[in-house]
Amino acid sequence: MCSIIGYYGDGPAAPILVRGLKRMEYRGYDSVGVATKSDHDIALKKGVGKVDDVNNALHLDNLPGHIGIGHTRWATHGNVTDVNAHPHPSSSGKIAIVHNGIIENYDELKADLQARGYNFKSQTDSEVIANLLQFNYDQCHDIKQSMIRTMSKLKGHYAFVAMFENGMLAAARYHEPLIVGIGKNGFFLSSDVLGFIEKTDDAIYLDNGEFVMLDRIGIQIYDFEGNAVKHQVTKVSKEFADAYKGDYAHFTLKEISEQPDTIIQAGDKSADAINTATDFIKHARNIYITGSGTSYNAALVAKYLWQKHAKIKVEPIISSELSFTPETIDPNSILIAISQSGESADVLEAVKIAKKANAKILSIVNILTSSLAQESAVVIGMGCGPEIGVAATKSFTAQLGIIYKITRKLCDGCINVDSTKISDSVGKVLSDQTKIKEIAKELKDVQDIYILGRAVHYPIALESALKLKELSYIHAEGIPGGELKHGPLALMDSSVYVIIINPNDFTYNDTLTSAREIKARGAKIIGISDKPSDVYDHWIQIPTIDDALYPLIEIIPIQLLSYYSAIEKDTDPDYPRNLAKSVTVK
Ligand code: G6P
Asked: Where exactly are the transmembrane stretches of this chain (predicted)?
């Protein structure tokens, strides 16, 4: 998703902004730009491509001055072009803005402004903010008033930073993240603490419906009516400063490799919240669980585990679907929202709908300062550290780690969540990647992969398919084993690969039969199992563990397979095309 950044201080703004944007690259983007305030006017450079490439070509970091704004764009309105990249100047060039979010009524605002003589160069919704601010400023010649008037006209959700010709920065937050960093020698505005963590760990998290004005006198924060607002300065957790690849070739591989620790530590700092959540779940009449992408797959695992081990029924809902089926939520129920970022717009919308129905919100979230955490009655922190790779890996298993801890409490210890065993087993899968690398070479030219799993292994099949799609761009589909003969069997031939998730548990025999049916049609079989079989063309061995715990182990080889397939195909596993780490637009 778009990242916005602003800097007002003693240092040279442009290199600080470029460095901050680089640290937020993980959010996903297609173009980049920076504008600074020089002695006389606003200087601006922008273009399509990666931060490093555009910087090498245009020297963004050479722009003069100590005040500036920067942006990485993830296109929503208008093609990926240099002109559509941010910052966007107003038609007089006296104000420039960067924006994250969507302005829903930009069409009518644009028509109105054009009729008043304001020119537009881009196809974006964002440019309307620059010209609306300019229009309001031209009327009242007061930055605070022009901000208030502008926000009163904007519909949608947004965070933006505006730089005025006199050097003042003004920024507003409405349902998109915006954080103020307070450094010794300057102030920062950013979508993410990673934008300024190298310079300061003092931050103010703006609330929805607030705006901030920054100049040499200091910071002033207001609500959208213009009333002054006071905020505490928060210390940002130092762990965010660890967001480096270290010796790993990619963040994705680093994050996959951290799992022997992150799974077992998941939720450790939220023991009280896990107890409270368990209590709520035990006594609730209706329980819903929601998430997007990988987090939804974790929600599905919860459904299977709680049903099987604790006889508790929970209804998983894909977050983006709830807007269209709000009647799903019965009053006075519980909604458990799972999200790594805590900023996925679809998840936040689902929470809003559930709150309307008087549901209590419990969340499992990695970023404890996120909007989701703020909206929740009970917050369980995943505690797996920053996840930079766009495709979720360690956050998925941390979510499962917490779900397992809740399961054990719900069923009064009926499953044995043995941390040492889990950690050792994950470590064992990671310790020899030779075979997985060989299989990845074979997958390079494969068009279609199907992944089969029964019961709780079905959500793992779905998550496996998602990983393969995101990282290797191979078409992949997760199938519940029994559904094979109700359609997918028609697709099986020698060009197809099928991954069979087949641990030695109650699903083993049936899944092996499915594998034989597929093999008879000529497809190649990759078996993920602790038990060998002649039906597998490739056997990826996983350690034997308590039946209930297999999902935690069996996803690891598929994460690795997806990663190495991306390497074989020479695509960037950390930043897959067209995807964003936290999707803050609906
Ligand atoms: C995006 C990411 C996925 C992620 C999903 C949910 O689509 O590309 O990797 O699973 O968002 O993100 P969340 O932060 O809510 O878990």
From this structure: none
Question: Looking at the 3D structure of the chain, how many domains does it have?
Answer: 3
Per the annotation, the verdict on 411 as an active-site residue is no
**274 in the same domain as 230:** no
581 catalytic per annotation: yes
Distance 392 CA to ligand 1 centre (A): 7
Vertex 359 angle, CA 192 and 1, to 5°? 20
342 lies in a domain?
yes
Looking at the fold, whether 193 and 101 belong to one and the same domain comes out as: yes
580 part of a folded domain: no
Query: Which residues does ligand 1 sit against, CB inside 6 Å?
Result: 292-295, 339-341, 344, 347, 390-392, 579, 581-583
User: DSSP alpha helices (H): ranges in 59-189?
Assistant: 106-115, 127-140, 143-153
How far does the centroid of ligand 1 lie from the alpha carbon of residue 116, in Å?
A: 41
CATH of residue 501: 3.40.50.10490
The range of the structural domain enclosing residue 274 comes to 244-417
Question: Is position 426 within any domain?
Answer: no
| CA 182–ligand 1 middle distance (angstroms) | 29
Local confidence band at 198 (pLDDT 50, 70, 90 cut-offs): confident
pLDDT digits 0-9 by tens, 297-323: 999 999 999 999 999 999 999 999 998
- Rounded to whole angstroms, the Cα distance separating 122 from 132 reads 15
With 0.85 as the threshold, say if the pTM is over it: no
